[in-house]
Amino acid sequence: MKIILIINFLIIFFSISSGFVKAEDKPIYKTQAEINIASRKDLEKVNDKLKLIIKKVKKIFKKDSLFLNEFDNSQRAWVNYKEAMVENLYPKMNSEKINKKNNLPYCMLYGTIDIGFRYSYMRELTEDRIKQLKRLVKLRCLNNPDIIDEEFCQDDYIENL
Predict the structure, then answer these.
(1) Rounded to the nearest 5°, which phi and psi values hold at 93?
(2) Where along the chain do its domains lie?
(3) Burial class (CB in 10 A: 0-12, 13-18, 19+), 60
(4) What is the DSSP letter of 105?
(5) Whole-angstrom distance, CA of residue 47 vs CA of residue 96
(6) When comparing pLDDT for 55 and 159, which is higher?
(7) Do residues 153 and 145 touch, judged by C-beta distance below 8 A?
(8) Among 114, 116, 154, which Cα is nearest to 134's?
(9) pLDDT at 98 over 60
(10) DSSP state letter for 10
């Protein structure tokens, strides 16, 4: 009996914390496909925000060509890092090794929720990158105030990048 209660508690807890059950402002997802679509949309929003911040950073530092070159290099390296981290946490596996009946080029290790996990983790990494870029702007403002317009170095501006 205790085991059944514990299992029910865990199901309810994880359902509420992951968006399966409607919280105050979260929708109710009825299928795994809906969860995956919502995860993708969340990732797209964060990616759009990152692209906007990158444009703003390039505008802020337009006079510093050395920085812009290094910034582009670091952004490419970050994209590679993000892809490697997602692949490390949610590896694609050769379908022949798992299921010979399946002709897919790879099999998702976690089943249908795999793509939702991937989108959520990419969103988390992208949100971290946004924080990193805000810190970068703040530090560059402190270290190179003569290259950057003063308005871009205000805390309010940086926070709202």
Answers:
(1) -120, 145
(2) 1-30, 31-159
(3) buried
(4) S
(5) 34
(6) 55
(7) yes
(8) 154
(9) no
(10) H
